[in-house]
């Protein structure tokens, strides 16, 4: 039983490390801020959660596993907030390549004069 | 099991080094912010891996602290930073 759990933890940690590596490669290779955020945030959060799950399995029975779970929770809660702020700023300062956007809903809603979007702070 | 730790350490180190390249290259503050976020996430992955490897749980408090401090740092930078004046190439023209 212990060996099986250790192997599961090892696989989770390996998967998380691979995702972290892909996130890093994406951050370096992608052309503008929004695509870099796309590369950075998703594998980053999922990879971190995988590593934390592996660590929690490996540290099973220890009282400090609660801190590991808490870390995962905080990451899940805070990542969307940061992504929203940075994405909106990047759009507002035109750090976005128009030719890479397939659909620009911010501009569409602005042209229709709808509230929200740019003005929201 | 040893090969797992070695592989994870190599991949995380490579990820950190590559991300530092983007952190230096920029070109805008937001790119650096994104790169810094990724770098901290890689660091947190490394700390988690270290805790799993050594069965030493004293570092888990550091994990939680990092998760919270990064959030405060990123939001403050996004809120209070000075906008860049020189735009990178390929950006949209101002309307």
Average predicted confidence as pLDDT of chain B: 84
Largest sheet of chain B: none
Count of strand segments of chain B: 0
What is the helix tally of chain B? 3
The radius of gyration over CA of chain A amounts to 19 Å
From the helix content, strand content and strand pairing of chain B, which structural class follows? mainly alpha
Shape descriptor of chain A reads elongated
Order of helices and strands of chain A: HHHH
Number of domains of chain B: 1
Q: How would the global form of chain B be characterised?
A: flat
Beta-sheet strand percentage of chain A? Answer: under 5%
Low-pLDDT stretches of chain B: none
Largest sheet properties of chain A: none
Fraction of residues in H or I helices of chain B: over 70%
From the N-terminal CA to the C-terminal CA of chain A, the straight-line distance is 52 Å
- Number of strand segments of chain A: 0
- How large is the share of residues in beta strands of chain B? under 5%
In short:
The complex is a heterodimer of chains A (121) and B (95). Chain A is an all-alpha fold and 121 residues long.
Task: Kindly list the characteristics that best describe this protein.
heterodimer, A: 121 residues, mainly alpha, 74% helix, elongated, B: 95 residues, 3 helices
Describe this structure as you would to a colleague.
The complex is a heterodimer of chains A (121) and B (95). Chain A is mainly alpha-helical. Chain A has one domain (2-119). Helix content of chain A is 74%, strand content 0%. Chain A contains four helices and no strands. Chain A has helices at 2-29, 33-58, 65-92, 105-111. In chain A, helix 1 (2-29) runs antiparallel to helix 2 (33-58). The longest helix of chain A is centred in the N-terminal third of the chain and has 28 residues, at 2-29. The model of chain A has no long low-confidence stretch (mean pLDDT 81). By secondary structure, chain B is an all-alpha fold. Chain B has one domain (2-80). Chain B has three helices and no strands. The longest helix of chain B has 26 residues, at 29-54. Chain B is flat. Chain B starts with a helix and ends in a 15-residue tail after the last helix. The chains are: A mainly alpha (121), B mainly alpha (95). Chains A and B meet through helix 1, helix 2 and helix 3 of A and helix 1, helix 2 and helix 3 of B.
């Amino acid at each position: 039983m212990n060996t099986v759990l250790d192997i599961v933890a090892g696989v989770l940690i390996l998967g998380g490390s691979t995702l972290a590596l892909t996130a890093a490669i994406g951050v370096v290779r992608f052309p503008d801020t929004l695509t870099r955020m796309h590369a950075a945030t998703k594998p980053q959060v999922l990879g971190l959660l995988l590593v934390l799950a592996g660590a929690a399995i490996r540290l099973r029975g220890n009282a400090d596993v609660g801190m590991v779970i808490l870390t995962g929770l905080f990451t899940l809660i805070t990542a969307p907030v940061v992504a929203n702020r940075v994405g909106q700023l990047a759009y507002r300062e035109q750090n976005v390549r128009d030719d890479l956007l397939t659909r620009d809903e911010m501009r569409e809603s602005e042209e229709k004069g709808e509230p929200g979007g740019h003005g929201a702070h | 099991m040893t090969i797992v730790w070695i592989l994870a350490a190599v991949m995380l180190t490579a990820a950190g080094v590559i991300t530092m390249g983007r952190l230096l290259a920029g070109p805008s503050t937001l790119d650096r912010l994104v790169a810094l976020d990724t770098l901290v996430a890689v660091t947190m992955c490394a700390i988690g891996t270290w805790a799993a490897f050594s069965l030493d749980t004293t570092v888990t408090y550091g994990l939680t602290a990092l998760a919270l401090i990064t959030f405060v740092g990123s939001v403050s930078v996004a809120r209070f930073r000075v906008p860049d004046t020189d735009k990178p190439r390929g950006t949209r023209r101002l309307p």
